[in-house]
Fold this sequence. Notes:
The chain is built from 11 helices and 11 strands. By secondary structure, the protein is an alpha/beta fold. The chain has 3 domains: 82 residues, Orthogonal Bundle (Arc Repressor Mutant, subunit A), CATH 1.10.10; 113 residues, Periplasmic binding protein-like II (D-Maltodextrin-Binding Protein, domain 2, 3-Layer(aba) Sandwich); 104 residues, Periplasmic binding protein-like II (D-Maltodextrin-Binding Protein, domain 2). It is globular and about 70 Å long.
Amino acid sequence: MDYTLNQLQIFLKIVQNQSITKTAEELYMTQPAVSIQLKNFQGQFSIPLTEVVSRKLYITEFGYQIAESAEKIINEVDALNYKTSAFKGELSGRLHISSVSTGQYVLPSFLSGFMDLHKGVDLSIDVTNKLKVVESLERNEVDFALVSVLPKKLKINQEILLPNRLFLIGKGKKNMERRSLKKSLFESMQLIFREQGSATRDVMKDFITKNKFPVHKRIQLATNEAVKQAVMAGIGYSIMPVIGLKYELKNEELQIIPTKGLPITTNWRLIWLKSKKLSPAANAYLEYVKEEKEHIIKKKFGWINEY
């Protein structure tokens, strides 16, 4: 056997995701690169680890057993690294955060400084929709979650980071009325929604329902980035958080359309279970956020006040 730690990590992630595509996205690799690593890893075993049926990837019983062993090996390697860091007096451990997809425009700014200070901390981030974020928090799979809408049933603690403002967004340089948008014009728009389980979708749907706007044309897309690209292409309009539109608004590729009742303002919040016993790494990160957030907001997000 001549497999590498990297192959074990990639195979474990494939088993967890049941998908080469999603694994490639999470590991910031290309799909062919993940497929090659899987093929090389499989080549060291005479029994199949995976099988493809009707173009869908399935893990064999033997594959699950290998994944279980791989996880144990990876955890042992992590433990060795943590012990080495601790012996040198460095903060060590794993910090696991789940974030709603639009949080990708927020979270890195609140993490980069901390990770620079603590090289011995391993960081794991899951970016998905609100429904899955809440599920991972409820199952105690993560230390923290980044959300803009609080879960209703969980007992959580929270640290408010910064405001989240949502506007009606259209393609830049279109001739739109500068006063509040008329209801008749809104009704004629093709609207682009996020997928089920998205907090942005829920906010947009609530706004339309509250104002009794009938929606005749709609498109559904899976990510905030996909919605942004569709709006820039002139396919339709959407209610979106301004946090991810800095350069597009500045370059007039997108525009904010004045609309009565908008913007809708929520808050980006770092939340964790009240019953959660935070690790030393998680506690250190929470203290870092509390101490540095005003400086981070001023440096990275001051531009939001323009809107």
